[in-house]
Amino acid sequence: MQSAQGERDERGETLIELVVAIAILGIGAVAVLAGLMLSVKASDQNRRQATGGAYVRSFAEAIQNNVDANGYRACGSAIAGYSAVTVPDLPAGYTATVTAVQSWTGSAWGACTANGIQRVDLKVTSSGDAKHKVDETLTVILRQPCNGVATASTSDPCA
C-alpha cells in the first residue's frame, strides 16, 4: 500500500520473505544435525577401536604369561591352546581368537612344524553389523622362557 506521499508503507515482512528465511534456517539445522550424527558415529567407532586395541594387547600379555608359567603349546594344538587363554575383563560383545601360529624355520616363517620360536596372530573383534564391526589384530613372537619349565613337547631351552 502506498501512502499519500508515494512512499511504501512499512508494516512487516511478506509471506515470501518468511518462507525463504525458514527454509534457510531449516537447511542450516539439517546440516548441524548431520554433523552431530557423524561425530557420534565416529566417536563410537573410535571407542570400539581403542577398546579392541587395548584388549588385543591384554590377550597377548595373557598368552605370554601362560607360556611363562606352562611353556609352549605344541604346534598341533597351539591355536586351540592359545585360544583357550582367557582375556582378563573382556567386555561383552568382543571375542578374542588366535588366527594363526607359525614357527621359525631358520630362514623364514612357515607352518608350525617345530616347537622353536612361535609367531602368533591374535584378533579381537567387536560385535555388530559389518559396517560397525571392528577387528583389531596383533602379531606376537613367543619364545620358550628360561624358567625351568619343560612340557611333553618341549624341553627347557636353558638346561
Automatic annotation (TrEMBL):
Coiled-coil segments: none
TM regions (residue ranges): 15-38
Alphabetically ordered keywords of this record: Membrane, Transmembrane, Transmembrane helix
InterPro entries: N_methyl_site (IPR012902), Pilin-like (IPR045584)
Pfam families listed in its UniProt record: N_methyl
NCBIfam families with a match to the protein in the record: IV_pilin_GFxxxE (TIGR02532)
Protein's recorded name: Prepilin-type cleavage/methylation domain-containing protein
UniProt organism field: Nocardioides aromaticivorans
